[in-house]
Design goal:
CATH architecture of the largest domain: 3-Layer(aba) Sandwich
Distance between the termini: 66 Å
Strand order of the largest sheet: 7-10-9-8-6-11
Number of strands: 18
Radius of gyration: 30 Å
Largest sheet: 6 strands, mixed
Number of domains: 5
Strand content: 15-25%
CATH superfamily of the largest domain: P-loop containing nucleotide triphosphate hydrolases
Oligomer: single chain
Length: 757
């Protein structure tokens, strides 16, 4: 759906046109009703400009960064300033690094992390107080800001751009100082490309966090490549996804061409656009992730939130970030194991125990509201923090009594042991650690920040680097003719559904992934799903169905294909690829159900939406978007399976993959891997001879049972020599031959001897 942007400015004169409105400083209800009638249509976004001093934060940021850079060789002074601020009650970044043996005081800090203490998700009053302290401490000439319009913020819980000292390179902090020094007076064209890209490879640094920092120190030259600005750019056709120096430079050029060079204004408008655009439901975001940024609008978060709440129509509208509360919830795995729950799964928690008595801290259940963040704590067998959840419904009445509802949004790969939290002196007064008897406990924002910091230190997620992916890159490592690959790609684009069939070892999965990336034009793993069918796979697993809960009830759960379709529906400009291995192992009519019709290429889109079997509302309909492509894979040598029926065949194009032992690309691959020419010739000759015997045995086998080349494609760390060849034959090829001729031992021995001679 096209997006149309309307703007309005608050000042003392009457409306002037249909597309740019001018409002009085106190616009009447009549005017808002009139304006919303004009622009409150699907695809129309209203951006409201308020004529008041804006971007007053720029002078003090520019002055402060110059002072900060003076302390590169005396970083302890910067740390001591933050310590003093913390001592006086100011909200700053955590000043201790949590180690397994307890907290370790910071001894190094980079300029962006220091400035992060002044650009965090706290109230505007707190931000002004922080700047007032620094102004006095350094005798800064610039005034304390009146507004913070357009500033993207680091999440309060992830304000540091570096991990433990043991987990970071020796030059980690130094590299961040270098790029700050280059950027303070220069644009991107004068930044060292290698330095920029090297910074992006650092742990705890991503494109968003790095460019946010560059924007803080030089907002006239840089625009942060955060999610809001990137989304705003797409409304005017800026499709570049910044991931390195070159792509960021291109993105910045295109943003400048489309929106101009007033980057603070662009950032401010991007925030307004984001707040005005309905958020896609069901999207899971890691709470506290480095890309989870925001910029305040109109320079006043409090005024913004009051305006938003006054126009809100949803009972469960998300509160502004300043209103988020933080909780600690105990989970008994004997009742419901949060550690085993899927990310995105919702669960309820009663405010009364099994005997009907109010739980301890009952008042907390009444205070919980949608949007609040919850630490998920497992009470046995080993006490540990295992997950982060988000409240989706406050206390409400159900057939089970009063309940709160929450959604699991993050699973910790490395849980945080109870003893690690106890060892942190900053948590010594934390309610759940003083007395853990009960269910729900309240955390202060600072306590959550400390716990979040520990989580992030022990669960560092390296950013996924998405790179362009063209046909040339796809063909590398494939032994197909280019024309054959082109035919596959065209079939996937036209039919939307293809099946790659062939005997074992021809590289069906390998080819499928490369086709997917080539179709997308980049190696984005978020837009690919890979599953395997089996005889027990059902509609309830694939689409949706009722599943038992811990309380003996049943609730509707969405399957993997349903969720993937919803994800593709929210991003219809880009292709998504769903890959199904062993597609003929499942009962397809049972698994796809009514969606068998919708996978047809001419039955895609909203106009063909239908109600699902378990739809809870007559008006609830489902469709498969046009940007979703299906790749099935089928092993033609599996005796236990019948081939797919006509109903499926007419909905897919079938592409047969064959062994490529004679391919020059295969031979060159082995030579490049270190195989001697004689061994390469042996593999090619003997495997071709074996496949000829298999193909000629049309009574029992035939061409569909040939053995593929991938058995002889060694991994990078394996040298292909004679011993390796014998291992592959004896441990992989011979068992396959024995299965093929299970009733003919002579044939098995004959072919085995030929391979090993």
């Amino acid at each position: 759906m096209p997006i149309h942007v309307a703007t309005a400015t608050l000042m003392s004169s009457p409306p002037q046109s249909n597309h740019h409105h001018t409002l009085s400083k106190a616009p009447s209800i009549w005017f808002f009703n009139h304006l919303f009638l004009e622009v409150g249509k699907p695809g129309m976004v209203l951006i409201l400009h308020i004529r008041q001093p804006m971007f007053t934060w720029i002078p003090i940021h520019r002055e402060a960064i110059r002072r900060i850079l003076e302390y590169r060789e005396n970083q302890n002074e910067l740390i001591s300033i933050l310590r003093e601020m913390k001592k006086q009650g100011f909200k700053v970044v955590s000043l201790e690094k949590q180690d397994a043996e307890g907290p370790i005081p910071l001894t190094e800090i980079d300029p962006f992390t220091f400035m992060g203490s002044f650009n965090r998700r706290v109230t505007n009053k707190n931000r002004r107080d922080n700047w007032a302290f620094l102004k006095t401490r350094w005798n800064l000439k610039a005034a304390v800001p009146d507004d913070f319009a357009g500033i993207p913020l680091y999440n309060s819980m992830m304000s540091r751009l570096f991990p433990y000292s043991r987990d970071r390179n020796k030059d980690h902090i130094s590299l961040l100082w270098q790029i700050a020094e280059q950027a303070v007076d220069n644009g991107i064209e004068k930044i060292d490309e290698a330095l920029f890209n090297r910074c992006l490879e650092l742990r705890c640094v991503a494109m968003a966090t790095l460019t946010i920092g560059l924007f803080w120190i030089n907002p006239e030259k840089y625009l942060s490549a955060d999610s809001k600005n990137i989304s705003y750019g797409k409304t005017k056709g800026v499709q570049v996804e910044p991931h390195d120096y070159q792509s960021y430079s291109q993105w910045l050029r295109e943003m400048t061409e489309k929106f101009g060079s007033n980057y603070p204004q662009i950032s401010h408008e991007a925030h307004l656009f984001s707040e005005s655009t309905p958020k896609a439901s069901g999207k899971t975001t890691k709470l506290g992730s480095s890309s989870d940024t925001m910029s305040t609008s109109a320079g006043e978060a409090d005024r913004e939130s009051s305006l938003r709440s006054g126009l809100s129509t949803g009972a469960e509208a998300k509160p502004p970030p300043a209103d988020i509360q933080y909780w600690w919830l105990n989970f008994n795995p004997k009742i419901w194991n949060i550690d085993e729950a899927m990310v995105g799964q919702r669960q309820t928690y009663t405010s009364h125990n099994e005997k009907g008595h109010k739980r301890q801290k009952y008042r907390y259940f009444r205070e919980v509201k949608p949007g609040d963040v919850v630490i998920g704590y497992l009470t046995s067998p080993r006490k540990k923090v295992v997950a982060i959840c988000r409240i989706t419904k406050g206390l409400h009445q159900t057939e089970n009594g009063e309940e709160i509802e929450f959604e699991k949004v993050e699973q910790l790969a490395n849980p945080i042991p109870h003893e690690t939290l106890l060892a942190n002196p900053e948590l010594e007064n934390s309610e759940p650690l003083i007395n853990n008897q009960g269910s729900l406990f309240k955390l202060t924002e600072e306590e959550y920040g400390i716990i979040r910091s520990i989580i992030d230190e022990l669960n560092i997620a390296l950013p996924v680097k998405i790179e362009p992916y063209d046909k040339k890159k796809a063909m590398k490592g494939l032994f197909l003719a280019e024309s054959q690959f082109d035919q596959m790609l065209t079939a996937l684009e036209e039919k939307k559904n293809i099946i790659l069939e062939g005997p074992p070892g021809v590289g069906k999965t390998y080819v499928a992934k490369r086709l997917a990336y080539a179709l997308m034009g980049c190696n984005d793993p978020q837009r690919i799903a890979l599953i395997q069918f089996h005889q027990s796979y059902s509609y309830e697993d694939f689409i949706q169905g009722y599943r038992p809960t811990s309380k003996g009830h049943f609730e509707l759960k969405h399957g993997i294909f349903y969720q993937f379709c919803r994800r593709a529906q929210r991003d219809e400009r880009r292709p998504y690829v769903f890959i199904i291995d062993e597609i003929n192992r499942g009962n397809l009519s049972k698994i796809f159900g009514e969606l068998m019709m919708l996978i047809e290429p001419d039955k895609r889109g909203k106009e063909f939406a239908i109600p699902l079997t378990y739809s809870q509302d007559d008006d609830e309909k489902f469709y498969i978007p046009e940007n979703l492509h299906l790749i099935g894979m089928m092993n033609t040598a599996d005796r236990s399976l019948a081939m797919v029926d006509y109903a499926l065949r007419r909905r897919f194009r079938f592409i047969t993959l064959a062994p490529e032992f004679s391919s020059e690309a295969f031979k060159q691959f082995l030579l490049n891997a270190g195989a001697k020419p004689a061994l390469v010739e042996k593999i090619v000759t003997r495997m071709n001879q074996l496949n000829e015997v298999i193909a000629a045995d049309t009574k029992n086998l035939g061409p569909r049972y040939k053995i593929g080349h991938s058995y002889f494609c060694p991994r990078d760390n394996i040298k292909p020599d004679e011993m390796w060849y014998r291992r592959v034959v004896e441990l992989e090829i011979m068992p396959l031959i024995q299965e093929y001729w299970f009733d003919n031992e002579h044939k098995v021995k004959e072919q085995g001897d030929a391979l090993l001679a």
